[in-house]
């Protein structure tokens, strides 16, 4: 058994997602990095397609990464958590490649088809990464309204102005 780690090995996580064919959209601080604003983060935040086949791939991916529950690190991600995800739950885990937060539901989160259609695409070596649309991330961050969220919105809006 490998110990879960706190170092985020982002490129390896994204490549392993691709290998497992997990349908996902990146959001949170990693999305900010793709937009051009890099800030510290401990987790890869993912919105996953909420259908049974994809959630089974998410489960298999997390099991391969030796995922443990963030709030109960002695407990491995397993069949109970897969069942909870099939019922719509989110999940936060520690893996051998870093922390991953899996989201299916958030207040104000658009339907999956819209998220994918509006997502921004970035090339990372030989894989394409779907990243939440800036406008959607701003809307979600405004809803939550933390100090960090407000700073992130400011950074995104500044980047947009600089690109004009």
Q: Nutshell version of this structure?
A:
This protein is of the alpha+beta class and about 160 residues long. The protein has helices spanning about 10-20, 30-35, 50-65, 80-85, 110-120, 135-145, 145-164; strands at about 25, 45-50, 70, 70-75, 90-95, 100-105, 120-125, 125-130.
List the helices and strands and how they pair.
Blueprint: H1 10-19, E1 24-27, H2 29-35, E2 43-48, H3 52-64, E3 68-69, E4 72-76, H4 79-86, E5 91-95, E6 98-103, H5 112-118, E7 120-124, E8 127-131, H6 134-144, H7 147-163
Parallel strand pairs: 2-6
Antiparallel strand pairs: 1-2, 3-4, 3-5, 5-6, 7-8
Helix pairs in contact: 3-4, 6-7
Query: Domains counted in the coordinates: how many?
Result: 1
Instruction: Give the beta-strand count.
Output: 8
Largest beta-sheet characterization: 6 strands, mixed
Termini separation comes to 50 Å
Helix content: 40-55%
Main sheet: strand order: 1-2-6-5-3-4
CATH-defined architecture: 2-Layer Sandwich
């Amino acid at each position: 058994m490998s110990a879960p780690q706190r170092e985020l090995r982002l490129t390896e996580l994204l490549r392993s997602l691709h290998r497992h064919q997990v349908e996902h959209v990146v959001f949170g601080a990693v999305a900010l990095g793709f937009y051009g604003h890099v800030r510290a983060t401990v987790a890869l935040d993912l919105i996953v397609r909420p259908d049974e086949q994809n959630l089974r791939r998410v489960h298999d991916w997390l099991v391969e990464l030796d995922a443990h529950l963030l709030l109960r690190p002695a407990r491995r991600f397993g069949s109970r958590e897969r069942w909870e995800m099939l019922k719509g739950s989110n999940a936060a885990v520690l893996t051998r490649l870093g922390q991953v937060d899996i989201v299916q539901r958030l207040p104000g989160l658009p339907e999956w088809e819209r998220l994918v259609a509006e997502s921004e695409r970035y090339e990372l070596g030989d894989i394409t990464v779907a990243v939440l649309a800036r406008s959607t991330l701003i809307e979600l961050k405004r809803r939550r309204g933390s100090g960090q969220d407000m700073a992130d919105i400011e950074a995104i809006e500044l980047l947009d102005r600089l690109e004009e």
